[in-house]
Automatic annotation (TrEMBL):
It catalyses: [protein]-L-isoaspartate + S-adenosyl-L-methionine = [protein]-L-isoaspartate alpha-methyl ester + S-adenosyl-L-homocysteine. Pfam families: PCMT. This is Protein-L-isoaspartate O-methyltransferase. Gene3D superfamilies: Vaccinia Virus protein VP39 (3.40.50.150). GO terms for biological process: methylation. InterPro entries: PCMT, SAM-dependent_MTases_sf. The lineage of its organism: Bacteria, Pseudomonadati, Pseudomonadota, Alphaproteobacteria, Hyphomicrobiales. GO terms for molecular function: protein-L-isoaspartate (D-aspartate) O-methyltransferase activity. The gene is pcm. The active site is at 63. It is an enzyme of class 2 (transferase).
Amino acid sequence: MISNQPPPEKMMFQLTLRRRGISDQAVLRTMEEVPRELFVEAADRDGAYRDSALPIACGQTISQPFVVAYMTEQLQLQKQHRVLEIGTGSGYQAAVLSRLAREVLTVERYRKLADTARARLEKLNCHNVEVMLGDGLNLPGNIGPFDRIIVTAAVEQVPENLVERLEIGGILIAPVGPHQGVQTLTRLIRTEAGIERKELVEVRFVPALPGVAREL
């Protein structure tokens, strides 16, 4: 008899997210639906659903599931939103965003990562995601505005040119702090009166670097 129950590691994955405070049902459902094992290196597939970051190509990482879920929940996404992601990496965060928003533009400085992520996202029919090779810290002026912006690499300060691309009522999430060490996940909301800033939780991300990588 074939069981319809999810495998134990996926059940524990969902339980861990709930225990750590993720309560948005749309986010939880999306985290369950997106096959994380397709976004990690082949050697790490057995541990894809552990709550830990894992290495990927070009010296980058795929964030731990809780951080992906938490950042996504803090964005308060709605179906009509246009989202900008800085730092495509494996494409996992973009895949999660794609199920909760109308359109996602994700920017990656490594060609290898951009090409691989694009192929994965196409395979999963994430047709509302555009993967762009470029410098996420120095975007062309004609890109934007956005309802939501998520930065998935550490910045010492939130880049002003990203804040300027936020719609009124828009939310930006970024890990802010020293490149080597601990950062604080920070949420900015753009209002008619200005920017509301709130520090959330401590995190560790690889640094956001300027420019497009000359190799890889």
